[in-house]
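Researcher: We're teaching a course module on how sequence relates to structure. For the next exercise, students receive a sequence and then see the predicted structure as tokens, so they can try to spot secondary structure elements on their own. Here is the exercise chain.
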Amino acid sequence: MLQEFRAFIAKGNVMDMAVGIIVGAAFTAIVSSLVGDIINPIIGLFTGGLDFTNNYLVLSGEVPAGASLEAAREAGASIFAYGAFLMAVINFLIIAWVVFLMVKAVNRIKAAAEREKVAEPEAPKGPTQEDLLSEIRDLLKERAA
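Model: And here is the predicted structure for the students to work with:
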């Protein structure tokens, strides 16, 4: 069983998947920082710092007037946190757009690299084995004649 496990782990696609997950986790941190630290503040300039996170409805329980979402949750009230959900959807759409733009840029770079690779002329190849044998045959015929 240990040999099968080693063979499974050693397969290239498992290693590729592991690398993809690790890089994906690091990429998630980068994209989240890009959205939270750069894009959201810029959008906040245009929307006047609009933030729906603390918008909620109290379904049952007592919550002091004007309490934040966190305070309402700590009070044990049953709440309908539509603002947090709305902000999560907005953040998702922003992150999805940023990832789309990044993937588009990477694909453009890859396409340009492949065009350069195709544009490079192939190095001249040496004679084939058949060409060399034909040449040797012809030389032997000339010596025999």
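Model: If you want an answer key for the exercise: The two ends are 70 Å apart (CA to CA). Residues 82-119 form the longest helix (38 residues).
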